[in-house]
Amino acid sequence: MNQIELPNHLTRRQAIQLLGISGIGYLLGSCSSELTTKIGELSEPLNQSFGELLVRPQLLIPEFSKSAIDPKALLLNSYEGTPEIDPDEYRLTIDGEVKFPMELKLTALKQIPSTSIIMQHVCVEGWAVIVQWGGFRIRDLAKMVQPKDSARYVLFQSADKYTESWDLASAIHPQTLLAYQMNGQPLPDDNGAPLRLASPIKLGYKLSKWVTKVTFTSQIPKGGKGYWEEQGYEWFAGI
Ligand SMILES: Nc1nc2c(c(=O)[nH]1)N[C@H]1C(S)=C(S)[C@@H](COP(=O)(O)O)O[C@H]1N2
Ligand SMILES: [Mo]
User: Residue 203 CA: which ligand 1 atom is closest?
Assistant: First the structure.
C-alpha cells in the first residue's frame, strides 16, 4: 500500500464520481425510539452486501439544534488515557475485504466531502450530552475502497489498543461519521484526535476514539467483538 494524497487506484474524477450522490432518498424517522425498534427488528441488513445496502434507504435520526449543544457536559471516558499521535505521521489504514485497500493521510481524509451532525452521545455509565461532530461519512470512505460482496462487518482499531466491531449497515449509515471536529473546533486530543467515530445510532462505547485502522470483514475474529463487548457489554448497542 502506498501513502498517498488521493486514492492511487482512482483518478480524482473517478473518486469524485464514486462519492457522488446516487439519488437515494433517505427515510426520515419521526423519533429515535421508533428507530430503535426498527433497527432492532432488522436482522436482514446483517446479511446484506455493501452494494445491496447502498440502495436501501436507512432511517435517519432527527438531529438537535445548535442551541442544544452543551460543551461543558461532555465527560471524557477513556480506559487508558490519551495516546500520543503526531498528526503529520498519522495514517488511516483501510483494509480487509475491499477492492482498493488504502492508507490515507489526514490531508487526504479531509478531501472526502465533510458533513456535520448534532447528536446525543449516550454513555452507559449514566451520562449523555448533545455534541456536534464534523467529519466524513464511512459510507463515502467505503465507496472509495469498495468493500467486496463478502464484507459484513467493520472492525476499528485505535491507537490506545481499543477495538470495536460494527455491522456493515450501521457503519455505512449516512449519520455514521469519522470525525475530526467537535462543536465547531478541531477535535481535542482527549476526545479522539485526529479521528474518531461519531454516530447517533450507537452507544458511547461503540464510538472509538483515535481510530487508526478500519477493516472490512466477513467475520468478526474470536476475541474481536470490542473492548467492552468482550467483557460482556452488548454487541449491537443500538440507540
Ligand atoms: N479508543 C477509545 N475509544 C473510546 C473509549 C476508549 O477508552 N478508548 N471509550 C469509549 C466510551 S465508553 C465513551 S462513552 C466515549 C467517550 O467519548 P469522550 O471521551 O469523547 O467523551 O468514547 C468511547 N471511545
Ligand atoms: Mo461510555
Answer: 14
